């Protein structure tokens, strides 16, 4: 005679069955050579609206999802790694990315007059709103094309970006991406995270890049912004400070976002009448110098 399982046994069966359907990942991301923890790693479940970032000690926790998925790990200075969720152990190791830079001749500057020129412009009349970060690790990027007349001012001097924060010293990450053969962000122009502090209130936050001595690549490059989802930067409904300014323009050209573990062109706005059929662009500008 078949006997029905007892209540505790039934609960155990349900628990085991549920855990085969839904997975949650906890691990630490390490440098494959030094074995040091890697902070600020962008982590996504590919093609799912689920992402997170590693803490300063390299640890992370990724929320529940069903079945086996591809997990995408990307970090400044490292080769992007994709791995099946059922193959992840207690540690994930990323391989440092070797960057080959063209030879740059640096001339003595003591007797040279400093030249600058601005690329792009924060159009305040088209700056429609400021967006906070949320728990999913979105990245927004803007592409800058090289022009022959940049030859007189070939170095990245400063980035200016519209920010709004209701707290003191909210931090976010500025990233500089190179361009792949498809015209998408891939690889890094600078091998380290650039951590930026946004002051309280509406500001044009200025990031000085002069000391990095980065020349404007002939292929162009991307400037990108990523929020840091640490608890100390969170506000109501989980919104992450600071808020970043966006302009609503008629063209989709040069505006990108990272979601679902892949880069995409910015989407067309359809909901708000005022901005309908327009596209979000980061409200930022670049200053070059010699």
From TrEMBL:
Superkingdom field: Bacteria
Pfam families tied to this protein: CarbopepD_reg_2 (PF13715)
Listed InterPro entries: CarboxyPept-like_regulatory
Protein name, entry field: CarboxypepD_reg-like domain-containing protein
Biological source species: Maribacter arcticus
């Amino acid at each position: 005679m078949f006997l029905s399982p007892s209540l505790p046994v039934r609960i155990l069966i349900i628990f085991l069955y549920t855990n085969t359907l839904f997975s949650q990942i906890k691990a630490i991301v390490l440098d494959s050579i030094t074995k040091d923890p890697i902070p600020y790693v962008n982590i996504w479940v590919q093609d799912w609206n689920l992402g997170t970032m590693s803490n300063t000690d390299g640890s992370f926790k990724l929320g529940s999802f069903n079945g086996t998925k591809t997990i995408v790990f990307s970090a400044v200075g490292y080769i992007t790694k994709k791995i099946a969720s059922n193959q992840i152990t207690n540690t994930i190791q990323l391989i440092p990315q070797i960057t080959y830079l063209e030879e740059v001749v640096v001339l003595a500057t003591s007797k040279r007059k400093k030249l600058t020129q601005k690329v792009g412009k924060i159009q305040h009349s088209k700056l429609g709103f400021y967006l906070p970060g949320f728990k999913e690790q979105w990245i927004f990027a803007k592409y800058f094309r090289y022009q022959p007349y940049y030859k007189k001012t070939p170095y990245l001097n400063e980035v200016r970006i519209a920010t709004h924060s209701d707290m003191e010293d909210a931090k976010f990450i500025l990233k500089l991406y190179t361009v792949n053969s498809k015209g998408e962000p891939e690889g890094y122009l600078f091998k380290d995270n650039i951590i930026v502090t946004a002051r309280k209130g509406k500001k044009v936050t200025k990031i000085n890049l002069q000391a990095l001595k980065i020349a404007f690549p002939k292929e162009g490059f991307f400037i990108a912004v990523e929020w840091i989802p640490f608890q100390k930067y969170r506000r109501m409904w989980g919104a992450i400070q600071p808020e970043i300014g966006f302009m609503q323009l008629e063209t989709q050209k040069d505006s990108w976002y990272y979601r679902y573990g892949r880069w995409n062109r910015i989407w067309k706005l359809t909901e708000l009448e005022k901005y309908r059929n327009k596209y979000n662009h980061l409200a930022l500008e670049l200053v070059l110098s010699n």
